[in-house]
Amino acid sequence: MDQSFNAFIENSIIKNWDRDALTDYKGATLQYKDVARKIEKLHIIFEASGIQKGDKIAVCGRNSSHWGVTFLATLTYGAVIVPILHEFKADNVHNIVNHSEAKLLFVGDQVWENLNESAMPLLQGIFMMNDFTLLVSRNERVTYAREHLNEMFGRKYPKNFRKEHIHYHQDQPEELAVINYTSGTTSYSKGVMLPYRSLWSNLKFAYEVLQLEPGAKLVSMLPMAHMYGLAFEFIYEFTAGCHIYFLTRTPSPKIIFQAFADIKPNLVVAVPLIIEKIIKKNVLPKLETPTMKLLLKVPIINDKIKATIREQVVNAFGGNFFEVIIGGAAFNQEVEQFLRSIEFPYTVGYGMTECAPIICYEDWRRFKAGSCGKAAPRMEVKILSPDPEHIPGEIVCRGPNVMLGYYKNEEATAQVLDKDGWLHTGDLALMDREGNVTIKGRSKNMLLGPSGQNIYPEEIEDKLNNMPYVAESIIVQQNDRLVGLVYPDFDDAFAHGLTNEDIEHVMEENRVALNNELPAYSQLYKMKIYPEEFEKTPKKSIKRFLYQEAKG
Question: In terms of CB atoms within 10 Å, which end of the chain has fewer, N or C?
Answer without folding.
Answer: N
